[in-house]
Design brief:
The complex is a heterotrimer of chains A (about 650), B (about 210) and C (about 350). With about 650 residues, chain A is mostly helical. Chain A is built from 17 helices and 4 strands. Chain A has a single domain, classed as Cytochrome C Oxidase, Chain A (Up-down Bundle), CATH 1.20.210.10. In chain A, the strands form 2 sheets. In chain A, strands 1-2 form a two-stranded antiparallel sheet. In chain A, strand 3 and strand 4 form a beta hairpin. In chain A, about 65% of the residues are buried. Chain B has about 210 residues and is mostly helical. Chain B has one domain: Four Helix Bundle (Hemerythrin (Met), subunit A) (Up-down Bundle). Chain B is built from 5 helices and 2 strands. In chain B, helix 1 packs antiparallel against helix 4. In chain C, helix 1 crosses helix 4, helix 3 packs antiparallel against helix 4 and helix 6 crosses helix 9. The interface between A and C is large, with 92 and 91 residues.
């Protein structure tokens, strides 16, 4: 049994005897927990890659007229930094949490379509690699992640750069749509008995809203890049301004109709995560749960009506300008409401400053600042000075880094113990947090100023006479502080995996279902599917009615162990049931399958073939790989459909 | 999950569906997929409409006179009206197919499944003929805005019809082999949803592209 | 309620010049030549007034939110032995309050915003000066249509008079660009196959910095410009002299004559225009009065002999991706060409 010592000796987590190990078991897994871990690890690697790209950008901008990288390389750097962060790191990191946590929060054994879930991971892995292969051939995408036509058609973007863009993003887009389809059905259809929609954890709600946004917005993006792909590969005229009279604004409208919901896709899950962390460490429920759900739905809905605020400088005319300025201001209201509700959650609480809590609090502060610069953008005439300057870069990084990334780190510290059975080190965590806050603000706050002092964005260099130098130097120093903080975090993630303090089922004394099962969870998640009677089953559930759900708050049931001065619920013990397999318990789980990885390979091969079609010379004939890709795709789909056991 | 129901039941469903809503997850997933596809086709249709009437050079869809020069439109309304009618009739065939699967009538179920696929093939055949005619009249993917937007939009739709035909033929063969019966109608229901959706998309495309000049 | 937005608007307008003086002013402009805080037109003042309004309100809200949060975190921090906190789930009245108050604050920004959207996109008056701006990779062409049907073509330095509305017709025959001279106001995109408009009335003479504000390829960062605002008479003088053909070199000036020969009969003629010579290329910038421009290569270098030499030696090195190739000129050839180009006043 556990001790009451201030530091418990690390204890090995019991082996899951029935759960397979080895590379093949990971390649054929359809277990949402394993898939979640794979998403998380892969996405974190892409985060580091995109971070290095950012550091290179900052070094290039350290002094005027610098030649650390060439102009061509720089343009690829900022393009790939954005693409890798958005599609390689941030969306997949949220997907990692959707995967691991949501089925646990709704009381399910897995997602609705486990093989489809595996497929979306493999498509993500192959798509991310494909998108980045361009670097190897000095042909990384280089026209910006927003890729405005006609800069992206063959006439002005020769070579393979933008082919990697259109083809790689097709694979990644498919991955996202398939994954989100899965989550929607899981949340709507696989909830434990008694879990009405308005009893779902807020993170699950936000996952639902985000998933609906993804299946709809990514479809629009798919068409935008398909049209560009057809222009580049088959010579169509969608963006042919040279001799077909195409309109560049078609691209912008399609792109931003996707692009604006996309930023909500990047922040709404985080709002859900933070809404789980704050109540846990304030020891009181989320303030205004109903309003938080409705404001999330409203943001998702209104997010479709603001897209042209990215186009205030394109000359749409005063009526369109006014409409989008007003709709953008309108969406600030449900966003602000969330911030106030978070404050209401802290109010009257008993706040424990674990690292997870620190990052959530930091998120509120940074996201508020980002929201304010966003409101400043919404005033269209004022935006004409701000747009395409570093003022926008400041805004987006306050909401993407201060918002999405810091929220993700909060979620990592919070749920890592559930995933790996061990706590991340709190001392390193606090260092990570404070260095991040300092580095982040040092990097991005000056950008508000240098932008309004005239520095445009997406610029490879600047002149000494423009006055931008000192600001850029401060920003570059800040970026290296962020890098140091991230390094500490990476070390923490890696060392805690095997050597962190053992975490029990509920180290934080939290309220939702995922904390009622062992850490890490057994392969079948719940021994018995729980019956749910409240929104916070572990805080409010009656122990006599909620069968099998431990009451997370009964002090007499838990061991008081201090962790950095804050007392926590039970830490350190592992339950016997970890040693029992699903088979022993009579639980049927979907068997592993290798068709997801094969199908993902086939689909990717189609697009790889098209890359070769863009080449001249001997390599061109390799485009027959596309036909092989189609064949593998069709055969895999049939094999999948008729696979026994599913 | 097989139930041992052998009762002929018009609305044959498995005995109980163990989901929060009582609906089968696969059917729900399919509706979600259709939602996503609505935006897919919606964006393609929006592109077509944005570029409608803005091609700089012929061939044009409908008869038009520019700067005193008369251009004959390439669209063949009688042919495509016929193929549209066939596609609509194939949706009726699909309804019969599902009905017979639910009734347990293996022979007629297979017949109507193949009939639906056949109707779809006629539709595609007319499209192939139509596209070949256009090509000979100088309308290709690359000719002008009309060529690009038209072929990509109708081509996407045609690709969806093709996938549907393959799906239906597969189901037809499975039905003939007795692998699909009243207790396993979901597959056919989903095929029906898919086919009707493809039909509805065409009902939107046909007036916008062909009928309205 | 209706008086409040108007009053706040006038407070912001009154505060704006004060705040701008604090961070604006000639010293500020000297330090940050491209700053948005030195408005010299009504257009620029309007946009900056809105900026100040949203900044003041935004900072007020932000500071309040952050202060409250920090206070709560301190006041409600965990203390050993503290009882379990009261499990409140929400408060409807608060929800209503913090929905309505932000809505009001946003309305205060919204009303002047819509007004400004319309006031800054007016129909240009009949006596406006029309200038066509054509964005290129990576330089600016400026065309001044004249009443007699001629067009004066120049590049990278746009001249305007004060006291008269300037109406820019923005076009591109390649990729997207954006015209941005912060002292004149906000930016506007140059979109292929479209004509955009930018209307402003300069009030203060001077030389102002501008830069392309829409990513346009390899050397987007090096596509800058100058806007020179003259008095009305000064502008007329400039226009007249700009319309005149290139100065003929003096017969005694052998270096300039040799330079003219190299330039007008060499590769330069394929791309450049010099009125008064047979050179009529349209791919590159017009060079007719190149010598009196303040900068070269689209605002990135001061126009002096040293920089001109560096440019002619290897244009793609100075401007990556430049369509002007390295002509492998000898130093001697460069000397003559520099002499000629500098003579084009």
């Amino acid at each position: 049994m556990s001790s009451t010592a201030t530091v418990a000796a690390p204890r090995p987590v019991a082996a899951h005897h029935a759960e397979p190990t080895g590379l093949w078991s990971w390649i054929t897994t359809v277990d949402h927990k394993r898939i979640g871990i794979m998403y998380g690890v892969t996405a974190f690697v892409w985060f580091l890659v995109a971070g290095i790209e950012a550091l290179m950008i900052r070094v290039q901008l350290f002094v005027p007229n610098n030649h650390f990288v060439s102009a061509e390389t720089y343009n690829s750097l900022f393009t790939m930094h954005a693409l890798t962060m958005i599609f390689g790191a941030l969306m997949p990191l949220t997907a990692a949490f959707f995967n691991f946590i949501v089925p646990l929060q709704v009381g399910a054994r897995d997602v609705a379509f486990p093989r489809l879930n595996a497929l979306s991971y493999w498509l993500f892995l192959f798509g991310g690699i494909f998108l980045n292969v361009g670097w190897v051939f000095k042909a990384a995408p280089d026209a910006g992640w927003f890729a405005y036509a006609p800069l992206t058609i063959e006439a002005w973007a020769p070579g393979l750069h933008m082919d990697f863009y259109v083809l790689g993003l097709q694979v990644l887009g498919l991955s996202s749509i398939i994954a989100s389809l899965n989550f929607i059905i899981t949340i709507i259809n696989l909830r434990a008995p008694g879990m009405r929609l308005m009893r779902m954890p807020i993170f699950t709600w936000m996952t639902l809203i985000t998933s609906v946004l993804i299946v709809t917005a990514m479809a629009v993006f798919t068409i935008a890049i398909t049209e560009l792909m057809f222009d580049r590969v088959f010579g169509t005229n969608f963006f042919n301004t040279v001799d077909a009279g195409a309109d560049p604004l078609l691209w912008q409208h399609l792109f931003w109709m996707f692009g604006h919901p996309e930023v909500y896709i990047l922040i709404i899950p985080i709002m859900g995560m933070v809404s789980e962390v704050l109540p846990t460490f304030s020891r009181k429920p989320l303030f205004g749960y109903n309003v938080m759900v409705f404001s999330g739905v409203l943001i998702g809905w209104l997010g479709w009506g603001v897209w042209s605020h990215h186009m205030f400088a394109t000359g749409m005319g005063p009526i369109a300008d006014s409409f989008f300025a007003l709709s953008t201001m309108l969406i600030a209201i449900p966003t602000g409401i969330k911030i106030f509700n978070w404050l209401g959650t802290i109010y009257g609480g008993s706040v424990r400053f674990t690292t997870a809590m620190l990052f959530s609090v930091g998120f509120i502060a940074m996201f508020t600042i980002g929201g304010i610069s966003g409101v400043m953008h919404s005033s269209a005439p004022s935006d004409l000075q701000q747009t395409d300057t570093y003022f926008v870069v400041a805004h987006i990084h306050y909401v993407f880094f201060g918002g999405t990334v810091m929220g993700l780190w909060s979620a990592m510290y919070y749920w890592y113990p559930k995933v790996f059975g061990r706590l991340l080190d709190e001392k390193m965590g606090k260092a990570h947090f404070w260095l991040t806050m300092v580095g982040m603000n040092l990097t991005f706050f000056p950008m508000h100023f240098v932008g309004m002092f005239g520095m445009p964005r997406r610029t490879w260099t600047y002149g000494p006479e423009q006055g931008f130098t000192i600001w850029n130097q401060v920003e570059t120093i800040g970026s290296f502080i962020i890098a140091l903080a991230t390094l500490i975090f990476a070390v923490n993630l890696f060392t805690a995996w095997k050597r962190g303090r053992v975490a029990g089922p509920n180290p934080w004394g939290a309220a939702t279902l995922e904390w009622s099962i062992p850490s890490p969870p057994p392969v079948y998640n719940f021994r018995e599917i729980p019956v749910v009677h409240s929104r916070m089953p572990l805080w409010e559930g009656d122990p006599t009615k909620a069968a099998g759900i431990p009451h997370g708050r009964a002090e007499e049931e838990t061991e008081q162990v201090t962790l950095g001065g804050a007392a926590l619920a039970e830490v350190g013990d592992v339950h016997d049931e970890n040693k029992m397999s699903a088979h022993d318990l009579g639980i049927h789980l979907p068997p592993p399958s290798f068709w997801p990885i094969v199908l993902a390979f086939g689909i990717t091969l189609i697009f790889v073939g098209l890359i070769f079609r863009q080449l001249t010379g001997a390599m061109h004939s390799l485009w027959y790989l596309m036909i092989a890709g189609v064949a593998i795709t069709v055969l895999s789909i049939y094999a999948w459909a008729f696979e026994p056991g599913h | 999950m097989d139930s041992s129901h052998a009762l002929a039941d018009h609305a044959a469903h498995p005995a109980h569906i163990d989901t929060s809503t009582g609906l089968d997850s696969r059917k729900m997933a399919f509706w979600t997929f259709i939602g996503s596809e609505c935006l897919l086709f919606g964006s393609l249709i929006a592109t077509y409409m944005a570029y409608k009437g803005r091609s700089l050079k012929p061939p044009y869809p409908h008869d038009v006179t520019i700067n005193g020069v008369a251009h004959e439109g390439v669209l063949n309304i009688p042919l495509t009206s016929f193929s549209t009618f066939i596609l609509l009739m194939s949706s009726v065939a699909m309804v019969f197919a599902l009905y017979n699967v639910q009734r347990g009538d293996r022979k007629w179920a297979a017949f109507w499944l193949f009939a639906t696929a056949f109707g779809g093939s006629i539709f595609l055949g007319c499209q192939v003929f139509e596209f070949t005619e256009f090509y000979h009249n100088g309308l290709t993917l690359k000719s002008n805005l009309f060529g690009s937007t038209f072929f990509v939009l109708t081509g996407f739709h045609g690709a969806h019809v093709t996938v549907g035909i393959i799906y239906l033929i597969t189901l037809g063969v499975m039905t003939m082999r007795g692998r699909i019966g009243p207790e396993r109608t979901l597959n056919v229901e989903i095929a029906g949803l898919y086919w009707h959706f493809v039909d509805v998309i065409w009902i939107v495309i046909f007036p916008l592209v062909y009928l309205i000049p | 309620m209706r008086a409040a937005p108007a009053r706040l608007w006038s407070v912001a307008l009154a505060a704006a010049p004060l705040l701008l003086a604090a961070c604006g002013g000639k010293e500020h402009l000297r330090q940050y030549p491209q700053t948005t805080f030195y408005p010299t037109t009504q257009f620029a003042r309007t946009t900056d007034g809105l900026f100040m309004l949203s900044l003041i309100l935004g900072v007020a809200v932000g500071v309040a939110v952050l202060a409250i949060m920090v206070y709560f975190l301190w006041r409600y921090r965990y203390r050993p032995g503290a009882p379990e906190p009261k499990q409140i789930h929400g408060n409807t009245r608060l929800e209503v309050a913090w929905t309505l108050i932000p809505a009001v604050i946003l309305a205060v920004i919204a009303v002047p915003t819509v007004k400004a959207i319309f006031s800054t996109q007016p129909e240009p008056p009949a006596d406006a000066l029309t200038v066509e701006v054509i964005g290129k990779q990576w330089w600016w062409e400026f065309r001044y249509p004249q009443p007699n049907g001629d067009t004066i073509i120049t590049a990278n330095e746009i001249h305007v008079p004060t006291g008269r509305t300037v109406h820019l017709l923005l076009k591109s025959d390649n990729v997207l660009h954006a015209f941005w001279v912060p002292a004149m106001g906000g930016k506007r995109d140059l979109i292929t196959n479209r004509i955009n408009h930018l209307i402003f009335k300069p009030e203060q003479t001077g030389v102002y910095f501008g830069q392309c504000g829409e990513f346009c390829g390899t050397s987007h960062a090096l596509m800058r410009m100058r806007l020179v605002a003259h008095t009305p008479q000064g502008f007329q003088q400039w226009l007249t002299s700009e319309a005149a053909p290139a100065a003929e070199p003096l017969p005694t000036d052998s270096a300039v004559l040799l330079g003219k020969q190299l330039v007008t009969q060499g590769a330069c003629a394929g791309c450049h225009l010099i009125e008064g010579t047979p050179m009529a290329g349209r791919t590159g910038p017009s060079l007719t009065h190149f010598g009196r421009r303040r900068t070269l290569a689209a605002g990135i270098l001061d126009n002096n002999a040293e920089n001109l030499r560096r440019w002619l030696r290897n244009p793609p090195e100075m401007k990556p991706g430049s369509k002007m190739p390295n002509l492998n000129l000898t130093e001697q050839q460069i000397t003559y060409m520099v002499a000629y180009l500098q003579s084009l006043q």
